[in-house]
């Protein structure tokens, strides 16, 4: 009877659902965590359908389905043997106040980095990446961006708090180097003239092998520190319908997972998964895709660390 309330081998569905059932610790500063998972429940910057503020919770719930596997197939190590990962819950900010949000997220990301930890953010709409990149650039200098998306998010017109303008501002602020960066899965209009980013559009990505894509990405990035941002709408709506601005003709999940695994050993310093919007989801498939991408990114991050 002693273990009635103390059993810790959780099932696939019960009890509080932190990301991958990692320890839940609201204040990660001072902890021995290597990676801090932070939910960023913002959808104030969406141009289409809102709802991504519910994304972090949906991703966490879906992730517990993945938590039973020791080594995620087909990796040859268990990521949690190499990296101490904690879930710091969600960023708290004044609802409706874009400036307050931007300030708090950059500050929180900066504190996490200053304490020698890596941040993995779960969105939220894609705007969240801009304040995070500002914090990262202070620590890593100008980075390469690997950007999975149906949209380039490089639009010049629009407010500074818009989920379609971050990668117009980020190079101007010196946060990322477009010529060392690559956007994968693009299938919407953008100004191709003066578009500094390398693009592997969705048609090309669907025709190329995952290996060829990985090779091309590696040659573009070189030895720069890399930030990976994954807009779930890179995936075709057949694989990820639960998102604000879905576009047909995207990548399938098999191709995306193969590409991500191909980044093993790269100098990935930060990552996020954004735009999961559970109100438009079916059977949690988008949340599961988001959780799986996030977990693969953790493996990619840990693959550069030797087993301790
Ligand atoms: Mn997008």
UniProtKB/TrEMBL annotation:
What catalytic activity is recorded?
agmatine + H2O = urea + putrescine
EC main group: hydrolase
Task: Supply the alphabetized keyword list.
Answer: Hydrolase, Manganese, Metal-binding, Polyamine biosynthesis, Putrescine biosynthesis, Spermidine biosynthesis
Q: Which Pfam families does the protein's record reference?
A: Arginase
What domain of life? Bacteria
Q: What is its EC number?
A: 3.5.3.11
Q: Which family does it belong to?
A: Belongs to the arginase family. Agmatinase subfamily.
Q: Spell out the protein name for this chain.
A: Agmatinase
């Amino acid at each position: 009877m002693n273990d009635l309330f103390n059993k810790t081998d959780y099932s696939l569905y019960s009890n509080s659902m932190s990301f991958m059932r990692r320890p839940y610790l609201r204040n990660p500063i001072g902890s021995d965590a290597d990676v801090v998972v932070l939910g960023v429940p913002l959808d104030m910057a969406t141009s289409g359908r809102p709802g991504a503020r519910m994304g972090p919770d949906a991703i966490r719930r879906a992730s517990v389905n993945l938590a039973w596997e020791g080594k995620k197939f087909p990796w040859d190590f268990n990521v949690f043997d190499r990296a101490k990962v904690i879930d710091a819950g969600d960023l708290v900010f004044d609802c409706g106040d874009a400036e307050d949000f931007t300030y708090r997220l950059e500050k929180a990301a900066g504190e996490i980095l200053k304490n020698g930890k890596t941040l993995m953010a779960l969105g939220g709409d894609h705007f969240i990446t801009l304040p995070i990149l500002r914090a990262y650039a202070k620590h890593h200098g100008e980075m390469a961006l690997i950007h999975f998306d149906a949209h380039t998010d490089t639009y010049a017109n629009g407010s500074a708090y818009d989920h379609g303008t971050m990668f117009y501002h980020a190079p101007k602020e010196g946060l990322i180097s477009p010529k060392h960066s690559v956007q994968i899965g693009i299938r919407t209009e953008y100004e191709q003239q003066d578009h500094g980013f390398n693009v592997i559009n969705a048609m090309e990505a669907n025709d190329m092998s995952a290996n060829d894509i990985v090779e091309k990405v590696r040659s573009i990035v070189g030895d720069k520190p890399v930030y990976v941002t994954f807009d779930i709408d890179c995936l075709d709506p057949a694989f990820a319908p639960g998102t604000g601005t879905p576009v047909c003709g995207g990548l399938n999940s098999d191709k995306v997972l193969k590409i991500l695994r191909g980044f093993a050993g790269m100098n990935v310093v930060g990552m996020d998964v954004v735009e999961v919007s559970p109100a438009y989801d079916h059977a949690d498939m988008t949340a599961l895709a988001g959780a799986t991408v996030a977990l693969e990114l953790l493996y990619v991050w840990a693959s550069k660390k030797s087993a301790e």
